[in-house]
Amino acid sequence: MKVTFKIWRQDNPNSDGSFKSYELDNLTEDMSFLEALDQLNEELVLKDEKVIAYEYDCREGICGQCGVFINGRAHGPHANMTTCQLHMRSFQDGDTITVEPWRAKAFPIIKDLVVDRSAFDRIIEAGAYISSKTGTAPEANAIPIPKSVADKAMDAAACIGCGACVATCKNSSAVLFTSAKIIHFNNLPQGKAEAKDRLQQMTYQMDLEGFGNCTNTGACEVECPEGISIKNIAELNSSWIKSMF
After folding, report:
1. Last residue in a domain, options 52, 67, 100
2. What is the CATH number of the domain that holds 40?
3. What digits encode the pLDDT tens for the residues 186-212?
4. 3-state DSSP call for residue 51?
5. What is the pTM of this model?
6. Could you give the CA distance from residue 17 to residue 9 in angstroms, rounded to a whole number?
């Protein structure tokens, strides 16, 4: 299998970037997308050229580090899939595959396909925790929680913070990410005590980071590898209005 990678190259945050094409042969359909990039980097090393910088960690669709735009779509051509789970069988022999980093003011490019997503960390630090001392793990049934509530909280907690929602949004909004983190905590009994402060502090930090506003196009939900629902955004907006009174 032979493909042409058209990849965004940028040496540092202050330099101008551009696309550069690389032909790659001897790929197999069973190779993952990241394995193909690994092979490309090995060839660049042998040619004494600069390798392509990109992020990854678990390669199991759990950590969210590997996100890039592939042919104009976050994480590639399939729904509910991270970049590391994408395989070369999703492309045709002879294809040209365009690869670029997340594009958002709040996610400045560090190098090539690597962006700085520490804005997400600062939103988390603003309130995605409970401050009460819980001690050791309590008995699972000590605090009765309706299954519907637990399911909603855990569905929101599935967010892996990859940033696809921001990258695919025309406004670079982080409301899906922020709402998922808030809804996770605010729906559980342990998070109720600080629910109002958590909501206001995290949304304030989100705005402070320079993310855009949500205009409810739903693109974020479509590209989210975990299928986080925009119902979380609706609940966040409703709760935010109530918190003002």
Report:
1. 100
2. 3.10.20.30
3. 999 989 999 999 999 999 999 999 999
4. coil
5. 0.92
6. 6
